[in-house]
Design goal:
It is a single chain. By secondary structure, the protein is mostly helical. The protein is 63% helix and 2% strand. Among the domains are: 13-54, no CATH class; 134-209, no CATH class; 212-276, no CATH class. The protein has helices spanning 27-38, 43-54, 69-74, 90-127, 134-142, 149-155, 162-176, 183-210, 213-222, 226-235, 241-256, 260-273; strands at residues 13-15, 23-25. The chain has a two-stranded antiparallel sheet with strand order 1-2. Helix 1 (27-38) crosses helix 2, helix 6 (149-155) crosses helix 8 (183-210) and helix 7 (162-176) runs antiparallel to helix 8 (183-210). The longest helix has 38 residues, at 90-127. The radius of gyration is 49 Å and the shape is flat.
Length: 279
């Protein structure tokens, strides 16, 4: 076997070449068999040993013991995650109760203070009586605190007529073109006009939001002059997408009930309302 095998381990050796089936064995395999079976360590056995050592790193590693999550989290040498026993000390429990009691008392005191302030604010508002004269009404607003102007403007909305704004503009113009204008008073008058204008716009927006589409549609349908009622609703910004959608639903319902006259009336209203549609 030693003389029959070539020294290179890469070239195969053909055995039993007369057989129709040729088996190809590497020199390492034949050498390994020969070295073990003949009981001596020739070159082939040495080659087999070298190959075994060279492929040792391809063997699967030994299975390691699995580390469970319990084992990973149970290691706590400093005792940082250990469950602390509940305080059994009577003094500690009393201090805790006292702490929460003080917090509840402070919160209750804050609520009572807010209630007293709100009550006092409402008392001052009820004590004020807005005058109807535009000149006196301007003076009334000038004497108010800044945070109360918007509230009083909403309450006095019916009194804030074009005559009031005309009087306010006259006062602003007289102060602006005076021989010695008072810059502080002029700024106060201009700020007053801006605050009142914004407050009235907010009131109009809230009123438009409170008028629901169902109530608006009901009022238009029950009116004798439906076109005039629709124009009045448009002036209040009451014709919006919700109003049109509700009108479409009523048209579909009337059509399903074979109410052709109602369908015709509401279809005309929808065409007219689409002209005044707002966002």
């Amino acid at each position: 076997w030693q003389h029959a095998l070539p020294m290179s381990t890469k070239s195969p050796v053909h055995l039993n070449s007369k057989s129709p089936k040729r088996f190809k064995y590497s020199a390492a395999m034949i050498g390994a068999v020969a070295g073990v079976s003949l009981g001596h360590r020739g070159p082939a056995a040495e080659i087999s040993t070298r190959l075994s050592l060279s492929f040792a790193h391809l063997r699967p590693p030994k299975r390691c013991s699995r580390v469970t999550p319990q084992a990973m989290t149970s290691w706590d040498p400093e005792g940082l995650f250990a469950k602390k026993p509940a305080a059994s000390n009577l003094l500690a429990r009393n201090m805790t109760k006292r702490k929460y009691g003080l917090e509840d008392a402070a919160e209750l005191e804050v609520k009572e203070l807010k209630a007293r302030e709100q009550k006092e604010l409402q008392r001052r508002r009820d004590a004020r009586t807005p005058p109807e004269d535009p000149q006196q009404l301007v003076t009334f607003f000038l004497d108010l605190p800044g945070e109360e102007i918007a509230w009083e403007a909403a309450r006095c909305a019916p009194l804030l007529t074009p005559a009031f704004f005309l009087q306010l503009d006259r006062i602003i113009g007289a102060e602006r073109f005076a021989a010695k204008p008072d810059a502080t008073r002029l700024k106060q008058l201009e700020q007053l006009r801006d605050d009142i204008t914004k407050a009235l716009e907010g009131v109009k927006t809230k009123l438009a939001e409170t008028v629901t589409p169902a109530e608006s549609l009901k009022g238009v349908l029950q009116a004798r002059d439906k076109k005039a009622a629709l124009l009045e609703l448009a002036g209040k910004n009451g014709i919006n997408a919700a109003f049109i959608q509700l009108l479409d639903e009523n048209i579909a319902t009337a059509g399903a009930a074979q109410q052709q006259k109602a369908v015709e009336v509401m279809t005309k209203l929808r065409a007219e309302a689409s002209r005044y549609l707002t966002a």
